[in-house]
Fold:
Amino acid sequence: MTHRAFISAVGHYVPERIVTNSELSKLMTTSDEWIQTRSGIKERRFAADHEAPSDLGVHAALNAAKQARTGLNDVDAIICASLSPEHYFPGTSSFIQSKLGLVGVPSFDLRAQCSGFIYGLSVANAMVTSGEFKKVLLIGVEVHSRGLDFTDRGRDCAVLFGDGAGAVIIESCPSPEHGFLKTKISADGRFADKLWVEFPTMKRTPIMTQSDLEAGGLHPKMDGKFVFKTAVEKLPQVIDSTLSSINLQTKDIDLFLFHQANLRINEFVAATMNLDKAKIPSNIEKYGNCSAASIPILLSEQMQLGTVKRGDLICIAGFGSGFTWGCSVIRWF
Structure:
Protein backbone atom coordinates (compact mmCIF):
# COMPACT_ATOMS: atom_id res chain seq x y z
CA MET A 1 0.00 0.00 0.00
CA THR A 2 1.34 3.42 -0.98
CA HIS A 3 1.30 6.25 1.56
CA ARG A 4 1.75 9.89 0.59
CA ALA A 5 4.24 11.67 2.85
CA PHE A 6 4.26 15.22 4.20
CA ILE A 7 6.40 17.54 6.30
CA SER A 8 4.81 17.53 9.75
CA ALA A 9 7.32 19.72 11.62
CA VAL A 10 10.09 22.20 10.85
CA GLY A 11 12.84 23.81 12.92
CA HIS A 12 16.18 25.55 12.50
CA TYR A 13 19.17 26.83 14.40
CA VAL A 14 21.89 29.36 13.56
CA PRO A 15 24.92 30.20 15.73
CA GLU A 16 24.93 33.44 17.69
CA ARG A 17 28.09 34.90 16.18
CA ILE A 18 27.34 37.33 13.34
CA VAL A 19 30.17 37.99 10.87
CA THR A 20 29.67 41.05 8.68
CA ASN A 21 31.17 41.81 5.30
CA SER A 22 33.15 44.61 6.92
CA GLU A 23 34.73 42.12 9.30
CA LEU A 24 35.82 39.93 6.38
CA SER A 25 37.28 42.97 4.63
CA LYS A 26 39.86 43.13 7.43
CA LEU A 27 41.09 39.65 6.51
CA MET A 28 41.18 39.89 2.70
CA THR A 29 40.88 42.37 -0.13
CA THR A 30 37.13 42.82 -0.32
CA SER A 31 34.38 45.18 0.78
CA ASP A 32 30.75 45.21 1.83
CA GLU A 33 29.80 46.69 -1.54
CA TRP A 34 31.80 44.09 -3.50
CA ILE A 35 30.20 41.16 -1.66
CA GLN A 36 26.65 42.51 -1.76
CA THR A 37 26.88 43.39 -5.45
CA ARG A 38 27.99 39.87 -6.41
CA SER A 39 25.98 37.77 -3.97
CA GLY A 40 23.43 39.80 -2.01
CA ILE A 41 25.05 38.72 1.26
CA LYS A 42 25.41 41.24 4.11
CA GLU A 43 26.38 38.91 6.95
CA ARG A 44 26.56 35.27 7.97
CA ARG A 45 26.75 33.16 11.14
CA PHE A 46 29.85 31.28 12.32
CA ALA A 47 29.78 28.47 14.86
CA ALA A 48 31.37 29.06 18.26
CA ASP A 49 34.54 27.17 19.14
CA HIS A 50 32.57 24.67 21.25
CA GLU A 51 29.91 24.01 18.58
CA ALA A 52 30.27 20.89 16.43
CA PRO A 53 28.10 20.23 13.35
CA SER A 54 26.13 17.66 15.34
CA ASP A 55 25.36 20.30 18.00
CA LEU A 56 23.79 22.57 15.38
CA GLY A 57 21.85 19.62 13.97
CA VAL A 58 20.57 18.64 17.41
CA HIS A 59 19.36 22.19 18.12
CA ALA A 60 17.47 22.25 14.79
CA ALA A 61 15.97 18.81 15.43
CA LEU A 62 14.80 19.77 18.91
CA ASN A 63 13.24 22.96 17.55
CA ALA A 64 11.37 20.87 14.98
CA ALA A 65 10.32 18.45 17.73
CA LYS A 66 8.46 21.28 19.49
CA GLN A 67 5.95 21.21 16.61
CA ALA A 68 5.67 17.43 16.44
CA ARG A 69 2.75 15.69 18.14
CA THR A 70 4.99 13.11 19.81
CA GLY A 71 8.32 14.92 19.69
CA LEU A 72 11.11 12.70 18.42
CA ASN A 73 10.10 9.61 20.38
CA ASP A 74 8.77 7.69 17.40
CA VAL A 75 11.32 8.82 14.80
CA ASP A 76 12.45 5.62 13.10
CA ALA A 77 15.18 6.96 10.79
CA ILE A 78 17.60 9.90 10.69
CA ILE A 79 19.10 11.40 7.53
CA CYS A 80 21.79 14.07 7.75
CA ALA A 81 22.53 16.06 4.59
CA SER A 82 25.90 17.82 4.83
CA LEU A 83 29.09 18.61 2.92
CA SER A 84 30.98 19.56 6.11
CA PRO A 85 31.20 16.34 8.15
CA GLU A 86 32.11 16.36 11.80
CA HIS A 87 34.67 13.64 11.15
CA TYR A 88 35.92 11.79 8.08
CA PHE A 89 33.92 8.86 9.44
CA PRO A 90 31.48 7.96 10.91
CA GLY A 91 28.84 10.31 9.58
CA THR A 92 27.55 13.32 11.47
CA SER A 93 24.22 11.49 11.78
CA SER A 94 25.80 9.06 14.26
CA PHE A 95 26.71 11.88 16.63
CA ILE A 96 23.29 13.50 16.21
CA GLN A 97 21.56 10.20 16.97
CA SER A 98 23.62 9.72 20.12
CA LYS A 99 23.02 13.25 21.40
CA LEU A 100 19.27 12.91 20.78
CA GLY A 101 19.22 9.61 22.68
CA LEU A 102 17.66 7.73 19.75
CA VAL A 103 19.71 4.56 20.19
CA GLY A 104 18.86 1.88 17.65
CA VAL A 105 17.34 4.29 15.13
CA PRO A 106 19.03 3.84 11.71
CA SER A 107 21.05 6.93 10.81
CA PHE A 108 23.05 7.87 7.75
CA ASP A 109 24.62 10.82 5.96
CA LEU A 110 23.75 12.01 2.47
CA ARG A 111 26.30 13.91 0.38
CA ALA A 112 24.72 16.00 -2.36
CA GLN A 113 26.15 19.35 -1.26
CA CYS A 114 23.84 22.34 -1.80
CA SER A 115 21.17 20.01 -3.23
CA GLY A 116 21.49 17.75 -0.19
CA PHE A 117 18.21 18.76 1.41
CA ILE A 118 16.22 18.13 -1.78
CA TYR A 119 17.96 14.78 -2.27
CA GLY A 120 17.10 14.06 1.36
CA LEU A 121 13.44 14.90 0.76
CA SER A 122 13.40 12.42 -2.13
CA VAL A 123 14.93 9.66 0.01
CA ALA A 124 12.76 10.34 3.07
CA ASN A 125 9.63 10.50 0.94
CA ALA A 126 10.47 7.13 -0.61
CA MET A 127 11.13 5.61 2.82
CA VAL A 128 7.76 6.74 4.18
CA THR A 129 5.69 6.01 1.08
CA SER A 130 7.09 2.47 0.99
CA GLY A 131 5.44 1.86 4.34
CA GLU A 132 8.73 0.64 5.86
CA PHE A 133 9.24 3.80 7.91
CA LYS A 134 6.68 5.91 9.73
CA LYS A 135 8.60 9.04 10.69
CA VAL A 136 11.91 10.25 9.26
CA LEU A 137 14.00 13.08 10.70
CA LEU A 138 15.85 14.93 7.92
CA ILE A 139 18.52 17.42 8.98
CA GLY A 140 20.59 19.74 6.81
CA VAL A 141 23.61 21.05 8.69
CA GLU A 142 26.80 22.88 7.74
CA VAL A 143 29.79 24.32 9.54
CA HIS A 144 31.64 25.86 6.60
CA SER A 145 33.58 28.46 8.54
CA ARG A 146 36.33 26.12 9.71
CA GLY A 147 37.17 25.02 6.18
CA LEU A 148 37.41 28.37 4.41
CA ASP A 149 40.52 30.22 3.26
CA PHE A 150 40.27 33.76 4.64
CA THR A 151 43.00 35.16 2.41
CA ASP A 152 42.83 36.78 -1.02
CA ARG A 153 43.47 33.36 -2.54
CA GLY A 154 40.24 31.97 -1.10
CA ARG A 155 38.19 35.15 -1.21
CA ASP A 156 35.69 34.11 -3.89
CA CYS A 157 34.43 31.23 -1.76
CA ALA A 158 35.12 32.52 1.74
CA VAL A 159 32.72 35.46 1.47
CA LEU A 160 29.81 33.25 0.40
CA PHE A 161 29.39 30.64 3.11
CA GLY A 162 27.90 30.53 6.60
CA ASP A 163 26.98 28.00 9.28
CA GLY A 164 23.55 26.74 10.32
CA ALA A 165 21.12 23.84 10.49
CA GLY A 166 17.53 23.10 9.55
CA ALA A 167 15.40 20.05 10.27
CA VAL A 168 12.09 18.58 9.15
CA ILE A 169 10.06 15.56 10.21
CA ILE A 170 8.49 13.59 7.38
CA GLU A 171 5.68 11.11 7.97
CA SER A 172 2.64 9.55 6.34
CA CYS A 173 0.07 12.14 5.31
CA PRO A 174 -3.50 11.71 6.59
CA SER A 175 -4.85 13.57 3.53
CA PRO A 176 -4.56 12.13 0.00
CA GLU A 177 -4.62 15.63 -1.52
CA HIS A 178 -1.68 16.98 0.46
CA GLY A 179 1.99 16.22 0.93
CA PHE A 180 4.72 15.56 -1.63
CA LEU A 181 3.30 15.74 -5.14
CA LYS A 182 6.53 15.27 -7.09
CA THR A 183 10.28 15.39 -6.50
CA LYS A 184 12.92 15.24 -9.21
CA ILE A 185 16.67 15.06 -8.66
CA SER A 186 19.49 15.03 -11.18
CA ALA A 187 23.26 15.35 -11.54
CA ASP A 188 26.10 15.83 -14.01
CA GLY A 189 29.41 14.58 -12.63
CA ARG A 190 31.38 15.79 -15.64
CA PHE A 191 31.80 19.12 -13.89
CA ALA A 192 32.58 17.88 -10.38
CA ASP A 193 35.84 19.83 -10.28
CA LYS A 194 34.19 23.15 -11.07
CA LEU A 195 33.22 23.48 -7.41
CA TRP A 196 35.09 21.19 -5.05
CA VAL A 197 37.59 20.55 -2.29
CA GLU A 198 40.39 18.55 -3.91
CA PHE A 199 42.19 17.22 -0.84
CA PRO A 200 42.42 14.93 1.00
CA THR A 201 41.78 12.38 -1.75
CA MET A 202 41.72 8.59 -1.65
CA LYS A 203 42.68 8.34 -5.33
CA ARG A 204 46.38 8.42 -4.46
CA THR A 205 48.98 7.93 -1.74
CA PRO A 206 49.53 10.07 0.24
CA ILE A 207 46.02 11.45 0.49
CA MET A 208 47.46 14.96 1.01
CA THR A 209 50.97 16.40 1.02
CA GLN A 210 52.44 19.52 2.56
CA SER A 211 52.60 21.10 -0.90
CA ASP A 212 48.88 20.33 -1.43
CA LEU A 213 48.16 22.07 1.85
CA GLU A 214 50.34 25.08 1.02
CA ALA A 215 48.63 25.40 -2.37
CA GLY A 216 45.23 25.68 -0.68
CA GLY A 217 44.01 22.25 -1.72
CA LEU A 218 42.19 21.76 1.57
CA HIS A 219 39.88 24.72 0.81
CA PRO A 220 36.99 25.00 -1.67
CA LYS A 221 37.69 26.10 -5.24
CA MET A 222 35.05 27.39 -7.62
CA ASP A 223 34.76 28.40 -11.26
CA GLY A 224 32.18 31.04 -10.40
CA LYS A 225 31.12 32.02 -13.92
CA PHE A 226 30.66 28.40 -14.96
CA VAL A 227 28.68 27.56 -11.83
CA PHE A 228 26.44 30.59 -12.34
CA LYS A 229 25.84 29.79 -16.01
CA THR A 230 24.94 26.17 -15.29
CA ALA A 231 22.75 26.96 -12.29
CA VAL A 232 20.58 29.45 -14.17
CA GLU A 233 20.19 26.87 -16.95
CA LYS A 234 19.37 23.81 -14.82
CA LEU A 235 17.06 25.40 -12.26
CA PRO A 236 14.38 26.60 -14.72
CA GLN A 237 14.59 23.25 -16.52
CA VAL A 238 14.01 21.14 -13.42
CA ILE A 239 11.27 23.42 -12.12
CA ASP A 240 9.39 23.33 -15.43
CA SER A 241 9.90 19.58 -15.76
CA THR A 242 8.68 18.86 -12.23
CA LEU A 243 5.62 21.08 -12.52
CA SER A 244 4.61 19.85 -15.97
CA SER A 245 4.81 16.22 -14.83
CA ILE A 246 1.94 16.93 -12.41
CA ASN A 247 0.05 19.31 -14.72
CA LEU A 248 0.96 22.48 -12.86
CA GLN A 249 2.38 25.81 -14.01
CA THR A 250 4.51 28.37 -12.21
CA LYS A 251 1.45 30.60 -11.75
CA ASP A 252 -0.12 27.85 -9.61
CA ILE A 253 2.69 27.99 -7.04
CA ASP A 254 2.10 30.01 -3.87
CA LEU A 255 5.70 30.01 -2.63
CA PHE A 256 9.08 29.31 -4.22
CA LEU A 257 11.84 28.30 -1.81
CA PHE A 258 15.15 28.44 -3.65
CA HIS A 259 18.50 27.33 -2.28
CA GLN A 260 20.27 30.43 -0.95
CA ALA A 261 23.58 30.20 -2.81
CA ASN A 262 23.64 33.56 -4.52
CA LEU A 263 20.87 36.13 -4.69
CA ARG A 264 21.89 36.98 -8.27
CA ILE A 265 21.28 33.38 -9.38
CA ASN A 266 17.80 33.39 -7.87
CA GLU A 267 16.99 36.79 -9.35
CA PHE A 268 18.13 35.60 -12.78
CA VAL A 269 15.98 32.46 -12.54
CA ALA A 270 12.98 34.49 -11.41
CA ALA A 271 13.38 36.90 -14.32
CA THR A 272 13.90 34.09 -16.85
CA MET A 273 10.75 32.31 -15.68
CA ASN A 274 8.74 35.50 -15.16
CA LEU A 275 8.05 34.61 -11.52
CA ASP A 276 6.35 36.88 -9.02
CA LYS A 277 9.13 38.21 -6.75
CA ALA A 278 6.64 38.42 -3.87
CA LYS A 279 6.50 34.62 -3.93
CA ILE A 280 10.28 34.18 -3.59
CA PRO A 281 11.48 34.89 -0.04
CA SER A 282 15.19 35.26 0.67
CA ASN A 283 17.40 35.13 3.74
CA ILE A 284 20.84 34.90 2.12
CA GLU A 285 21.52 38.48 3.20
CA LYS A 286 21.53 37.26 6.83
CA TYR A 287 23.09 33.81 6.60
CA GLY A 288 25.06 33.48 3.38
CA ASN A 289 25.14 30.08 1.67
CA CYS A 290 24.41 27.37 4.24
CA SER A 291 24.44 24.62 1.59
CA ALA A 292 22.27 21.67 2.70
CA ALA A 293 20.87 23.74 5.58
CA SER A 294 19.76 26.77 3.56
CA ILE A 295 16.35 25.55 2.34
CA PRO A 296 15.14 24.12 5.67
CA ILE A 297 16.27 27.30 7.46
CA LEU A 298 14.30 29.38 4.94
CA LEU A 299 11.27 27.09 5.27
CA SER A 300 11.43 27.28 9.06
CA GLU A 301 11.55 31.07 9.00
CA GLN A 302 8.59 31.25 6.61
CA MET A 303 6.63 28.99 8.97
CA GLN A 304 7.42 31.33 11.86
CA LEU A 305 6.28 34.30 9.78
CA GLY A 306 3.01 32.56 8.92
CA THR A 307 3.75 32.70 5.20
CA VAL A 308 3.09 28.99 4.71
CA LYS A 309 -0.58 28.00 4.97
CA ARG A 310 -2.50 24.76 4.69
CA GLY A 311 -3.27 24.00 1.04
CA ASP A 312 -0.44 26.16 -0.32
CA LEU A 313 1.57 24.82 -3.22
CA ILE A 314 5.27 25.11 -2.44
CA CYS A 315 8.06 24.63 -4.96
CA ILE A 316 11.52 23.89 -3.54
CA ALA A 317 14.52 23.99 -5.89
CA GLY A 318 18.29 24.05 -5.64
CA PHE A 319 21.58 23.53 -7.45
CA GLY A 320 24.97 22.59 -6.07
CA SER A 321 28.40 21.06 -6.40
CA GLY A 322 28.63 17.77 -8.20
CA PHE A 323 26.84 19.18 -10.16
CA THR A 324 23.58 18.23 -8.46
CA TRP A 325 20.15 19.80 -8.69
CA GLY A 326 16.54 19.08 -7.88
CA CYS A 327 13.00 20.27 -7.32
CA SER A 328 10.19 19.22 -5.00
CA VAL A 329 6.55 20.30 -5.14
CA ILE A 330 4.48 20.02 -1.97
CA ARG A 331 0.88 20.81 -1.15
CA TRP A 332 1.17 21.92 2.44
CA PHE A 333 -0.88 20.12 5.06
